[in-house]
């Protein structure tokens, strides 16, 4: 979720040392958010405090350096603040992790695309928009796919929704992006259709589909998108 939008933003221009500060801030922010959610679910257990302090310091250091050099990056708060509020709401004890929580995480991650492109300097707005759209299509699709074989396993209505979303990405990519991205979107649709079928076929056996298997598929899919972005510039 962090690597794909960050690397798609990097692919739009020459690498910049400032992007390392963005990596630090992104990692600090992700770890801080994940730890804060766990802390809230654990009813504010004191054992989480050291981690919260360390990750928060990393976030403040990375973000502080960036904002001092590029104050215009403060615009990202328009997305991060409301999306972060949704994450906090979803972390309350007894609150199920719904789609709003997942999409809030995606929205925050997508900020990395224009931020990384800005740090590269001189990137066309159209290219940033295309890269952000490509990252959004992949990440939102991943939410649907993973949910269809884990939290909603066996729910064919949810699987159909996931496949439908991915099929809609194919013509959208064909119109808005270079043609190899439409081929990639078609491959993602195939993966969205195949995983629920595999899950049903293996259900109840000793070789059932597990989260690690889904994760491996997503690693391959995300790495393919990143390689495509560097090979076929957006």
Written account of the structure:
This protein is mainly alpha-helical and 234 residues long. It has one domain. Helices cover 76% and strands 0% of the residues. It has helices at 3-10, 18-41, 49-69, 77-90, 99-110, 112-120, 125-149, 156-176, 179-202, 211-231. Helix 2 (18-41) runs parallel beside helix 4 and helix 2 (18-41) runs antiparallel to helix 6 (112-120). The two termini are 19 Å apart.
Radius of gyration based on Cα positions? 19 Å
Low-confidence runs (pLDDT<50, min 5 residues)? none
pLDDT averaged residue by residue: 89
Query: Strand portion, in percent?
Result: under 5%
Strand-and-helix sequence, N→C?
HHHHHHHHHH
Give a quick set of tags describing it.
single chain, mainly alpha, 10 helices, 76% helix, 0% strand, globular
